[in-house]
Amino acid sequence: MLKTFWLLTMTLILADGCGSGAAVKADENSVKPGIYQKDKLVLFVYKASRTDVTNVALTGDFDGWASGGHPMQYDRGIWKISMTLDPGTYQYKYILNQATYVPDPTATASAPDGKGGKNSVLEVLVSQ
Predict the structure, then answer these.
(1) Distance of CA 13 to the CA centre of its chain
(2) Where residue 85 sits, what CATH number does that domain have?
(3) What's the whole-model pTM score?
(4) Contact, 17 vs 35, CB < 8 A?
(5) DSSP characters for 46-97?
(6) What is the pLDDT of residue 11?
(7) How many domains, in total, are found in the chain?
């Protein structure tokens, strides 16, 4: 499920993240925090607001809420990871420093997490 996505010298074609399906060209310097999708390939980009964050992982219902999550790669102030996800609706959170679960501050949708907080919600759509 986890795929290596980002090479520092690579130019990527990514969905615009707004659900329109329009492709945009982006390089590693222009990607901002958020979710980018191209068919089943989803790029998660996170920027920590805290200065003490030394590692970030991604977890959600797509992996059974794995306790350690999937480690994200750090590069120039942002954390990123790509995953191949089937079409559907997913809930997810970022894990900071292997202990603190936080929702995606750029997510446009959320759902109660059952513990008084919120999960971020992502809908994966595949163009036909």
Answers:
(1) 16
(2) 2.60.40.10
(3) 0.77
(4) yes
(5) E--SSTT---EEEEEGGGT--SS-EEPEEETTEEEEEEE--SEEEEEEEEET
(6) 29
(7) 1
Name all contacts of 94-98 with Cβ < 8 Å and 24+ positions apart: 94/46, 94/56, 94/57, 94/58, 94/69, 95/56, 95/57, 95/58, 95/59, 95/68, 95/69, 96/48, 96/50, 96/53, 96/55, 96/56, 97/52, 97/53, 97/54, 97/55, 98/55, 98/57, 98/68
Question: Which residues are bridge partners to 60 per DSSP?
Answer: 92
- What is the C-alpha to C-alpha distance for residues 25 and 94, in angstroms, rounded to an integer? 26
Q: 31 is written with which tokens?
A: 């990607």
How confident is the model over 34-77, as pLDDT tens digits? 999 999 999 999 999 989 999 999 999 999 999 999 999 999 89
Instruction: Look up the domain containing 72 and give its range.
Output: 2-124
pLDDT digits (tens, 9 = 90+) for 74-128: 998 999 999 999 999 999 999 999 999 999 999 999 999 999 999 999 999 988 6
d(C-alpha 118, C-alpha 14), whole Å: 27
